[in-house]
Amino acid sequence: MKKYILIIAVLISTIGMAQGPEGDRDDHRRMNKEKIEALAVAYITEQLELTPDEASKFWPVFNKLREKRHDLERKKKALIREMEAKIDTMSNSEATNYVSKITDLDNQIHASSYEQNNAEIVKIIGAKRFLKLMKAEMDFRKKMLKEYKERRGRDRP
């Protein structure tokens, strides 16, 4: 019996080592991102005291605006990486072109924020809860950063 337990223990440990300490990193990051998004949804829903009907109207609008903003931010990061690779060899006109593109993306990012598109959200949750939304998002970010710093401090020797 001890022999079988030993064999099973060895098999389990080798399977765990084959996957690495965190398994597939992309899956791990995606799962962490999904966890954080779920925590944010729960936190904001609680802070705004959304009814199920309000939540079903609010979250699609909010998520659409947030996704649009993230897409624009990804485009900007890609453009900056492209620019960084060429910065030493580009002409002044190419540099001017990059400045124009980056400024345009910055303006689009600002225009896509829910603060700039508040009418649609205010129509659903009201002005007072819109202000609570802004506060809840800041508070959630602060909580996440605080927890990250605390975890990081515990993990260091």
**Beta strand count:** 0
Overall outline: globular
Distance, first to last CA:
40 Å
Q: Given the helix and strand composition, which structural class is it? A: mainly alpha
Which regions contain 5 or more consecutive residues with pLDDT less than 50? 1-19
Quickly count the helices. Answer: 6
Biggest sheet descriptor: none
C-alpha Rg, in Å?
Answer: 23 Å
Strand content: under 5%
Estimate the helix proportion, in percent: over 70%
What is the element string, with H for helices and E for strands?
HHHHHH
**Overall pLDDT, averaged?**
82
How would you describe this structure in keywords?
mainly alpha, disordered N terminus, about 85% helix, single chain, about 160 residues
Verbal overview:
- The protein is mainly α.
- It is globular.
- The longest helix has 35 residues, at 52-86.
- It has helices at 2-19, 25-48, 52-86, 92-111, 118-125, 127-155.
- Helices cover 85% and strands 0% of the residues.
- The chain has six helices and no strands.
